[in-house]
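Cont'd.
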Amino acid sequence: MLEEGRISYKQLILLILVSRSIITITYLPALNEPPANQDSWIASLLYYPIQLLIALPIYFLWKRFPDQTIIQYSQTLFGKLGKVFGVLILWYFLHSTALALSQYGFFLTTAVMPETPILFFALTLVLISAYAATKGLEVIGRLSELFTPLILFAMITIFFLLFNNMNFKILTPVLEKGILPILQGSWIYNGRSIEVLELAMLLPYLNTPKKVKSVFFISFALVSVFFVIITIPVLTVFGVTEAQSRALPVFSVIRLIRVGDFLERIESVHMAIWTLGAFIKVTINYYLIVLGLSQLCNLKEYKPLILPIGTILIPLSLLVGPSIVELREFLSYKTLVPYSYFFILFLPCLLLLAAIVRKKGVTSR
Amino acid sequence: MPITKLVDKINKQKYKQKRRNQNSSEPADSQGNTQPNSQANALANPEDNPDSLSLNLEQNLQRIQSVFVESSDLVIRKFKIGANESINAFIVMFNGLIDEKSVSADLINPLMSLQHDLKKNNAINIIRDSSLTVAVVKESRTFGEITNAVLSGDTALFIEESNIALLASLRGWEARGVTEPKTEAVVRGPREGFVESLGTNMALLRRKMRNPALKFWELQIGRQTKTSVCVAYLNGIANDKIVAEVKNRLQRIDTDSILESGYIESFIEDAPFSLFPTVGNSEKPDIVSAKLLEGRVAILVDGTPFVLTVPYLFVEAFQSAEDYYTRPFYATFIRSLRWLAFFLTTFTPALYVAITTFHQEFLPPALLVSIAAAQEGTPFPSMVEALLMQTIYEILREAGVRLPRPVGQAVSIVGALVIGDAAVSSGLVGAPMVVVTALTAISSFVISSLTDVSTLARFILIILAGFSGLYGVMLGFIAFLIHQVSLRSLGAPYMSPLAPSTFSDLKDVFIRSPLWMMLTRPRAFWEKDSNRKKPNLMPTPPGDQKGEK
């Protein structure tokens, strides 16, 4: 077996939570997407049921192939042709990781260290993620267990510290445009969930397979709550129009925190949790690329692939985001959502259909 | 079996050495062959084995003298057994390793005044059974075993026409008494500490736990020193796999000397290239007993008061024996202070460097002005300043530990006046840096067992902070944590119960919950008998006494 380590369901839930929600603590693209008004937070809540629906094919595929990752069972289903699916999925992983890296670097160069080139941030994060990836899945799981409580604690504290500045009247009228734009918004949020594929890669490594259902239910519920905790302060402090015009809405709102005369400049905390969270996201995706590639090529050892993949990731992260404007353009819902639904929904559905038609895998008892 | 392999290997080496030193005066094989299987060989064919005793007393004497040539502390006392002076005998012992009074009273006296009708062929049994008033007597047939026993302090009795020698344990030597250890002083709790003698240390543990499940498994390590090393564990509570693994790792050690438990530590630790210690040590019987009761394994080494305990987890550094003897509230408060102190001592200089170099905007304006004013006149950037002050502090500390007591004052004066005051007034370093260094130093004393880790980590973090600010500090923090969570100590994850997190074990990490709430042993390494006490032990006032007024 390539990976001897197993992760517990708690670790998996926390991994999914951080990986899905960390980018939003600075960019929060949801504000400019439908419904694009004070109802964004309802869209964050409705994200949950839709996400569960979208994850269904992955769940049924896991039922049929409990010991295989998506890379492996696409080969079981289609033989040599299945490698095409593997390549596509790996490409999507590679692309999203590069996007995350580039978002990570752009924030740090704009807000914290303006004179440092973005290459430095991509390089250091990839190096440290490579170090974690060589240590294996167990270590990544434990790191998520250490860092996620810190991130959650910080975000919840920030939410309460902003309570004074919030004006909840901004949230009215509720459902101004009706329910349909809100549903559309939830559908769009789900388009960014590469985490469905992460689950498809990680479920075989869960040490308690009985808990798979609760992984789906709890992790996405936490993500949904996290979105609400982030969206509400931004909307109620800034108001809709001003929030939409900010490039880094959550970061700007954190800068406003002043408690008494001594607790101010909390944004260093934001930078710290941003680094921790982005590290977790990049590390798990990086690790899955390496693991998936070695499964695709039937290698016995994944470690030799770590540095080569890293050398691909760094230039790719510079290529996908030559400037913050181009990056934002690609990440806006008009481009990204159709692109990523091809990978996170269409491919799994196709695989599930093939499994049902060809009667492969463990059929339900 | 690894032990037979080890013995074979040692014997082979001994054989080679013997071939090499064939002309030298000292027979080489006298050094070794303490293992039971060489004794078994001797029993099988006593004539063939050159190591077994001869029936001729004179030959045995010559053999002993040739083994211990040029040993001026060796005492050989010849005498005749029985009132009628019928049988020749001699005893061999080391002056200073034996209790002279007991040897005279319990060994020589009864033998000389023995009234029994002795014949040369049954003498040994009669002497052993009805003459020696010594508690521990062993028989031995090989010179190797006898040599070893005499070197450990036993007294060997050789008797005419007998190829068996009796080993009487009448040990006694100058040793430090049981005193309060200097490293782990307590306000409340037992004052006794381990001493240099293995026997006393085992007795100290035995007195804490009157329980046959407390096992001591002893072996000798060190080709030259033959140091006694003892594995202590509670049978049924310690994980059998861990006990077996500890024994296995100890048997693997094949070195010439074990002078302190640190030698053992460096041969058995899981991560020899890590900054972090994965083997714990303590000088106090109550602490070691508590660790044994949690299911850990202790390793006692003769000649040192420091007892090793494994598995050793990171959070143990933040626990102190006194936490459990005081009431839980203050103990919890102190424990959180320890975590704070650890973070302060590791991160303060790095954060100071990062903020003053890169992120001045994070400081409140008033503080920024005073720091800027202090830095104004200094020649170095704050990273160089921090490294300089930390190095000077480490030198001072090392000097303070090593120097003879009467010179102590000189170091304090040099430290306080010259380095603290004069460095600032001469404009070499800024005053805030002196404050930061002092804070770092004070905090480092709180977590004494992690001092070496925090010192080295501090230097690394200062350099990272000097090059890339808070971002560098964060990266360093992440890198340290990646390393820490990947460590294991005898199979137990080093960062447990933080990662992998076990909720039930968090009762003894950041808080010290009341003893009646600590129901289970740490999950990281238990195997069976996980329950420590009955639930519902919370003390309650006697029930509603309605009649009372």
